[in-house]
Amino acid sequence: MSVKVRFAPSPTGKIHVGNVRAALLNFLFARKEGGTFMLRSDDTDQARSTKAFEDGIQTDLGWLGLTHDEFARQSERFGDYDKVSEWLKDKGFLYPCYETSDELDRKRKLQRARGLPPVYDRAALTLSDGEKAAFEAEGRKPHWRFKLSQTPVQWNDLIRGDVSVDTSAVSDPVLIREDGMYLYTLPSCIDDVDFGITHVIRGEDHVTNTATQVEIFRVLIELRGAGQVPQFAHHSLLVGADGQGLSKRLGSLSIEGMREAGIEAAAITSLLARLGTSDPVQPVPDLADLVEGFSFDKMGRAPARFDMDELATLNAKILHETPYEKVSDRLSADGVTEEIWTTVRGNVETLKDAVAWKAVIDGPVEPVIADEDRAFTTSAAALVPDAPLTDESWGALTAALKEATDRKGKGLFMPLRLALTGQPHGPDMAVMFRLIGAQKARARLLGETA
Ligand code: GLU
User: Fold this and answer.
1) pLDDT at 163 exceeding the cut of 80
2) 189 in a domain, yes or no?
């Protein structure tokens, strides 16, 4: 049996670190198993779904390297959903309900007051044809619920192990709203069966849905006379560094926002693939290596902590090892050559910092010279050779200065660095000195902006 998985976002917003983790796990599992990775646009909610969000999701996934092999859009399959729901209605699996949301609210409040779980009481199942007709005459339109078996549903979850959910503790799910709109549940099951999805990998917030969906799957397989209930893997959800849920902050954790902030795709995939697993979080620039090491067995059930600082650190670590050919297309337009990149990459947090270092080389730079260092940097300026600088020039200059003054170590090097680059930290001065060149170096050591 060949593996087929899907990532099924609703194009009603941008993807963020929370939901892209499901995409990554699906992708890694598919690649590891030599299977198929489908991207499915769950756009049944036509009022909230947009093409722009759908395109944005594709852009973000492509940027992360999570390329899909197949694509499907639910809004193109309403005909299939209609056929299935007619059959479900005929067979009594879908039954019409006429309660308004206020009425349902009241029922739930009463149940709670009596200490009962707020499970739908199935009152609609006992409506006579006359009562239904009376509601229709009032202008009420039914919403449709799926009749659950009210028995335990069990599955062996690839992450959570044996799971059992008693569907008598769950309300019969509404599959079709009164305006005729399909909620995600039924189309998702129909698609999973029709597209031959073998494994459903998604967040643990879907565990209860899975119980109801297993029942729907069984009915659909009977209708189709073929198909299989997929296997399930429910991963834990991300929490913030403070241990609190991320849901309220996800707006600021979009993949697009991270890309714009200079986070590398590989930093995101390295972190999300390893969070909450028994593997250490470390730079894994190549997705193929994440594929190689992927296993559900390594995934824990505890919530995984997402820390923006950890992502930033990982981002820097990845850039520090990135060869020029991997970033040249994003750097060459700004004149950052291979030599500059190799010199400065150990001092960047994002790629933009390389452009900033190029600006330090090119100038103008406002030198930073403390009063007590002015005489020292002035004598350094006099020692800058007239000839073009070489890799040895810096060593020669600092050796001569050491000889001529009683300075050494930080007292010798820091005033030079501050004067030449305007900053207390940065790349190897031997190369920076040569790249800055004699003329600008002399001027900066004299305190001139150059
Ligand atoms: N569209 C659903 C969601 O975004 C898909 C969940 C699933 O993977 O089945 O929650």
Assistant:
1) yes
2) no
Quick one: which atom of ligand 1 is closest to the CA of 200?
8
Domain boundary among 161, 176, 191: 176
Helix (H, G, I), strand (E, B) or coil at 147: coil
Q: Cα separation of 192 and 393, whole Å?
A: 67
Please name the residue whose Cα sits nearest to atom 4 of ligand 1: 9
The sheet with strand 4-7 has its strands ordered as: 70-73, 36-41, 4-7, 199-203, 231-235
Q: Is residue 308 part of a domain?
A: yes
Q: What is the share, in percent, of the chain residues with pLDDT greater than 70?
A: 100
Please list, residue by residue across 193-230, b when 16 or more beta carbons sit within 10 angstroms of its beta carbon and e when fewer do.
bbbebbbbbbbbebbebbbbbbbbbebbeebeeebebb
User: What pTM does this model have?
Assistant: 0.93
Are 110 and 169 members of one domain?
Answer: yes
Mean pLDDT computed over 56-63: 98
Which tens digit of pLDDT belongs to each residue from 293-327? 999 999 999 999 999 999 999 999 999 999 999 99
Q: Which of 176, 196, 211 lies at the terminal end of a domain, its last residue?
A: 176
In this prediction, residue 13 carries a pLDDT of 95
Q: Which residues contact 175 (CB under 8 A, 6 or more apart)?
A: 85, 94, 144, 145, 146, 182, 183, 185, 186
pLDDT in tens, 211-256: 999 999 999 999 989 999 999 999 999 999 888 888 777 777 999 9
Domain that holds residue 5: 1-72+236-319
Write out residues with Cβ below 6 Å of ligand 1.
8-10, 42, 184, 188, 200, 202, 206
Task: For residue 19, give the ligand 1 atom closest to its CA.
Answer: 4
